[in-house]
Amino acid sequence: EDKVVQSPLSLVVHEGDTVTLNCSYEVTNFRSLLWYKQEKKAPTFLFMLTSSGIEKKSGRLSSILDKKELFSILNITATQTGDSAIYLCAVVRDTGNQFYFGTGTSLTVIP
Amino acid sequence: EPEVTQTPSHQVTQMGQEVILRCVPISNHLYFYWYRQILGQKVEFLVSFYNNEISEKSEIFDDQFSVERPDGSNFTLKIRSTKLEDSAMYFCASSEGPRLGGFFGSGTQLSVL
Question: Given this model, what pLDDT does residue B18 score?
Answer without folding.
Answer: 97
